[in-house]
Task: inverse folding
């Protein structure tokens, strides 16, 4: 593992082409790439070598958090990781480069198949209406600006629905059918979610309260939903896999997926859109690959900076103390001189003779 990490650190991988060639010619961890979900992998699979599952040699490794992916990149367990935005990289230990693929995100619903109780038409219309209003009132733009400033989150305003609230009315509660009627009767909207996991600023789903870009975006959408249908609470239906989340929607255990769902992903060997119905897209993201930076490119850590700062502070304090002592000595000398009692005096010739005589007399007596 150490040798692999050392080898990876000596090679600069800063483009999709270099990453692909490294995977094609590498061994062990040099063929492994880390993702948070299979959906994230599917979104960028077109720019990567084929995976082992597809008859290729690239290993797809799933992690629970961005921190785990970053650690695996740095210790050489995997050659690269993928994030839907730039990871935190304060010391420059990672090299970041875009995947050059815009990934659309949207909530997904159970398709209408004649089963009245699970018909999603009205629920989808209601969620689309809420999504358009959350975008129209600036909630999306405010969140995107906030997390771009704090964490470098950069998204694309890629909306499949025109942002005109007059074109997306809410179905009347009194006429609600299918899943929307069930949601209103139950008093909760069951959202199929992946995890719970900690995705850093994008979603800290293991914490209480849950914070981050995606949960706050969903809250903004549901606030518009709540204006039309008061008293409906959010209930997350957790699952450990992307397939599990979609199966919960198809079976009726969940009403809709989270809005971060990747449109271009697969389910059972086919496009997700062939199995589920898409709501309005909420944004697009250009995924970011990251690899280990060569040692020469890594910036000094803050600990090193602190050690240097402590050394300088110590030197400054010692110099200031010495200067204060010198000033005090000069002040005392000046005061004694003015008082006629100098701190240091010189001996005149008579004093020297007297001193020598006294010394000779004492010596003779001894």
Result:
């Amino acid at each position: 593992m150490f040798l692999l990490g050392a080898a990876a650190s000596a090679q600069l991988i800063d483009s999709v082409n270099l990453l692909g060639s490294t995977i094609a010619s590498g061994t062990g961890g040099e063929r492994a790439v880390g993702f948070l979900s299979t959906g994230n992998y599917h979104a960028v699979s077109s720019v990567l070598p084929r995976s082992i599952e597809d008859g290729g040699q690239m290993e797809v490794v799933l992690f629970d958090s961005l921190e785990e992916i970053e650690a695996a990149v740095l210790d050489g367990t995997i050659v690269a990781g993928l994030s839907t935005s730039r990871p935190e990289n304060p010391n420059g230990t990672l090299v970041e480069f875009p995947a050059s693929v815009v990934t659309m995100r949207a909530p997904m619903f159970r398709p209408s198949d004649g089963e009245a109780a699970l018909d999603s038409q009205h629920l989808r219309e209601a969620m689309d209406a809420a999504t358009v209003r959350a975008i129209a009132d600036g909630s999306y733009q405010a969140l995107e600006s906030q997390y771009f400033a704090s964490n470098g989150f950069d998204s694309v305003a890629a909306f499949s629905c025109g942002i005109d609230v007059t074109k997306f009315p809410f179905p009347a509660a009194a006429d609600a059918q299918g899943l929307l009627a069930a949601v209103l009767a139950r008093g909760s909207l069951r959202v199929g979610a992946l995890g719970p996991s900690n995705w850093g600023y994008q979603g800290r789903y293991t914490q209480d309260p849950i914070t981050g870009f995606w949960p706050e975006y969903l809250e903004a959408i549901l606030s518009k939903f709540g204006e039309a249908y008061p008293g409906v609470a959010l209930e997350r239906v957790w699952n450990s896999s992307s397939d599990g989340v979609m199966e919960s929607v198809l079976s009726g255990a969940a009403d809709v997926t989270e809005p971060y769902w990747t449109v271009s992903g697969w389910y059972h060997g086919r496009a997700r859109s062939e199995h589920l119905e898409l709501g309005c897209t909420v944004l697009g993201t250009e995924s970011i690959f990251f690899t280990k930076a060569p040692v020469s490119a890594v910036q000094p850590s803050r600990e090193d900076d602190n050690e240097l700062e402590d050394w300088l502070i110590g030197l400054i304090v010692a110099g200031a103390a010495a200067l204060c002592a010198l000033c005090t000595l000069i002040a005392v000398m000046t005061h004694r001189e003015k008082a006629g009692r100098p701190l240091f005096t010189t001996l005149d010739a008579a004093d020297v003779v007297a001193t020598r005589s006294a010394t000779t007399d004492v010596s003779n007596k001894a």
User: Anything to note?
Assistant: Residues 88 and 151 are 7 Å apart (CA to CA). The chain is about 40% helix and 15% strand. The two ends are 84 Å apart (CA to CA).
